[in-house]
């Protein structure tokens, strides 16, 4: 372990199967839950273009996952002193100037309220100021209406789950699925497939972007911080504000096969859209209408940054 300021950082190697093997494992798992499912190894398209609108062209080059902070910084009561910076995260995971996508809690100091952060940033480097296209979804304090806008900051608070890479194009897993017939949503079906095939002996993690092309999704947006302790899942669900948002939704997702004792969040997905909706993605609402298309890559390393000292499993869905 290495210290960095007030943070503790550990690095754990991840098992990286061949892309062809992963494609077979994911396709087999998805076909349990979806009428149509295909996973292929392809050249990464230019993700800066429609329909993905990313800040870098690809997700390849030194891919690694970062789990920063954690839900115990949010519940039962918020620890507002837990502040982080995306440029610093890129340096902490040894990819300065890297491309970061994923899910986190927004910069409450910069915007004044709690929010969902849909991370999409080419971080600063010695030669570039980068490109911050991160969005935040929040509830407007005046009337509780949904607001989706670009983040005014490179900072974030409390927690984050990210894929960090050099942002290059290369070989990736193209995943397509439609017409859900099982219980598991798109991300859970893939994570379950990894866990069933590789068990707890091999620690595997993927990150990427996907489009929920059609259908409706169950999304939550955190209201401002609770003034009373959130001690149970029921408390958390009563506090969160849930919405049914329509596709297309542009999602950034990180998931791992299991937690090998690092106090990880095993999956986390946030989304934004071109029609003003976004937040924390849970699942699609109408399986027959569900349609997904995404690109993923396996990570080589997991970096655990500033794990909470007092931890619990409440609120990690």
Protein architecture, described:
The protein has 5 helices and 20 strands. The protein is mainly beta and 317 residues long. The strands form 2 sheets. Strands 1, 2, 4, 5, 6, 7, 8, 9, 10, 11 and 20 form an 11-stranded mixed beta sheet that branches. It has a 9-stranded antiparallel beta sheet with strand order 3-12-19-13-16-17-18-14-15. A hairpin with a 2-residue loop joins strand 1 and strand 2. The radius of gyration is 18 Å and the shape is globular. Residues 1-5 have low confidence and may be disordered.
Give me some keywords for this one.
317 residues; mainly beta; 11-stranded mixed sheet; 9-stranded antiparallel sheet; 5 helices; 20 strands; disordered N terminus
Most strands sheet: 11 strands, mixed
Strand content: 35-45%
Order of helices and strands: EEHEEEHEHEEEEEEHEEHEEEEEE
Q: Roughly how many Å is the radius of gyration?
A: 18 Å
Helix content: 10-25%
| Structural class label | mainly beta
Q: Per the principal axes of the C-alpha atoms, what is the gross shape?
A: globular
Q: Uncertain spans, ≥5 residues at pLDDT below 50?
A: 1-5
- Average pLDDT: 96
Number of helices: 5
Task: Record the SSE blueprint.
Layout: E1 2-4, E2 7-13, H1 19-33, E3 34-43, E4 64-69, E5 83-85, H2 86-92, E6 99-105, H3 108-111, E7 116-122, E8 131-132, E9 135-139, E10 146-150, E11 155-165, E12 171-180, H4 186-198, E13 205-214, E14 216-221, H5 233-239, E15 241-246, E16 249-256, E17 267-272, E18 279-284, E19 291-298, E20 301-305
Parallel strand pairs: 4-20
Antiparallel strand pairs: 1-2, 2-20, 3-12, 4-11, 5-11, 6-7, 6-11, 7-8, 7-9, 9-10, 12-19, 13-16, 13-19, 14-15, 14-18, 16-17, 17-18
């Amino acid at each position: 372990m290495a210290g960095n300021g007030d943070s503790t950082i550990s690095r754990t190697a991840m098992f990286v199967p061949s892309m062809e093997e992963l494609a077979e494992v994911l396709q087999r798992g998805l076909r349990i839950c979806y009428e149509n499912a295909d996973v292929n190894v392809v050249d990464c398209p230019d993700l800066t273009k429609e329909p993905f609108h990313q800040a870098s062209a690809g997700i390849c080059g030194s891919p690694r996952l970062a789990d920063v902070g954690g839900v115990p910084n949010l519940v039962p009561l918020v620890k507002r002193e837990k502040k982080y910076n995306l440029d610093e995260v890129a340096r902490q995971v040894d990819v300065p100037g890297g491309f970061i996508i994923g899910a986190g809690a927004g910069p409450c100091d910069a915007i004044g309220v709690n929010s969902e952060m849909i991370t999409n940033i080419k971080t600063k480097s010695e030669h570039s100021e980068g490109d911050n296209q991160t969005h935040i979804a929040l509830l407007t304090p005046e009337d509780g209406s949904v607001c989706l806008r670009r983040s005014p900051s490179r900072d974030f608070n409390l927690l984050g789950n990210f894929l960090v890479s050099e942002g290059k194009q290369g070989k990736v897993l193209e995943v397509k699925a439609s017409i859900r017939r099982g219980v598991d949503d798109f991300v859970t079906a893939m994570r379950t497939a990894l866990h069933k095939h590789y068990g707890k002996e091999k620690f595997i993690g993927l990150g990427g972007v996907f489009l929920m092309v059609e259908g409706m999704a169950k999304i939550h947006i955190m209201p401002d911080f609770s003034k009373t302790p959130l001690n149970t899942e029921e408390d958390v669900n009563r506090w969160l504000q849930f919405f049914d948002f329509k596709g297309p939704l542009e999602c950034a997702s990180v998931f791992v096969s299991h937690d090998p004792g690092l106090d990880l969040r095993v999956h986390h997905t946030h989304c934004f859209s071109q029609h003003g909706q976004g937040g924390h993605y849970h699942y699609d609402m109408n399986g027959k209408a569900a349609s997904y298309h995404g690109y993923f890559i396996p990570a080589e390393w997991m970096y655990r940054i500033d794990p909470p000292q007092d931890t619990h499993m409440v609120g990690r869905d």
